C-alpha cells in the first residue's frame, strides 16, 4: 500500500459492542455498528474522501474491531529474564500478527522504549520492572527489595513506566511451604499512595486468597491473575471497582507447575491445584458481581506471545457472554487504558475478520487483515 493510499473498510465496523448478536446491530445511540469507515493519512474518518484522496483507495471488507488489547504481557522478557532487542521485536510482531495492537506490559527488565519509534510495531503501555520481595520471585525478573525500600522503588518505576507500577503481591514462602503475602499493609499502602501522587496506577501479581483484601484496602487499582478471589473479597473488589486481569491461559499451567514442585512444597502444590480447579467459577463470580474484567495472556515469561484470541475464548468458557469477553480485549480495555478505539480522528489501529466475533469468539484467532497506524501489516 502506498504512503498516500486511502483504505475503505466496508461491511460492519464495530465501534462499540452493540447488541452482541449477529443481526442485531442497533447498538448504543445508533453508533455501535457502522457500515463503513475510511483511513486517511493514518487516521479514522467516517466522511467519504473527496478530490485526490478518493483516487487511490484500497477496499477491505469484513467485520472490523479496534486493534485487540493484551492487557497483561511482557515484551522483553523470557523464562530466564531480559532478552535481546531482536527477541523483543519478534515478541511484538507475534502480538501484531494476532491482532493485538495495544499491549499493557505488566513488568519487564528490558528497556523497550525503542519500540515506540517503530511504526510497524504495537503500542506498549509499560509498568516498568516488577517489584518483588528479596528471593520471593522468579530470578532475574524483578527488583528484589525489602519493605522499607518499597516506596522509593515504586516512585522510581512510576517515573519510568507509562502510568502503571507492578508489584509482586504474593509468592511461595519457603518457610511455610505455601503462597504468602510479600508486603506488610502499612508499607504497601504508603507505596500505592506515592504512585497515585505521581499519577500512576498500581497493579499486583496475586494468586493467594489472603493477599487480596489488604491490597484493596491499601488502594490498589488492579490485580493480575486474582485466582484467590472468594465470596468475601469479590464484593470488596466490586465496591472499589478494582479491575482483574485473570490470564486464564496462564492459570491453565498450574497443574504442571504443581507437579514440578510437589516433592519440595506439597502444600503449595495442593493449593495451586485448588486455585486452578475453581478458576472459571472465580472469574464468572467476579464478572457477575460487577468487577471489571480485562483480557491478558501473561505472555513473555514461559508462554508464547500472540495468545489473546485464546484468552478471550477462555473468558467465554468461564461463562462471560461473548460480547463482554470481546469487549474485555477491545472497547472496554481501551477505555480502561485511556486509548481510543474506532473514533473519528483516532489512529487507524484495527483488525478485520471474516464474520462477527460477537457471535463466535473463535473468529478472533483468524484475522483477515490487520491495520496498524493506517498501514495494512497483515
Description:
There is one protein chain. This protein has 378 residues and is α/β, with parallel strands linked by helices. Helices cover 28% and strands 24% of the residues. It has twelve helices and 20 strands. It has a seven-stranded mixed β-sheet, with no helix packed on it. Strands 12-15-16-17 form a four-stranded parallel β-sheet.
In short:
It contains twelve helices and 20 strands.
Descriptive tags:
alpha/beta, 378 residues, 20 strands, 12 helices, four-stranded parallel sheet, seven-stranded mixed sheet
| Coarse shape | globular
Walk across the major sheet and give the strand order.
3-2-1-4-18-19-20
Provide the helix percentage.
25-40%
> Could you give the count of β-strands?
20
Mean pLDDT across every amino acid position = 94
Q: Give the end-to-end Cα distance, rounded to a whole number of Å.
A: 11 Å
DSSP helical segment count: 12
- Helix/strand/pairing category: alpha/beta
Profile the largest sheet: 7 strands, mixed
How much strand? Answer: 15-25%
Radius of gyration over all CA atoms, rounded: 21 Å
Which stretches are low in confidence, meaning pLDDT under 50 for 5 or more residues running? 20-30
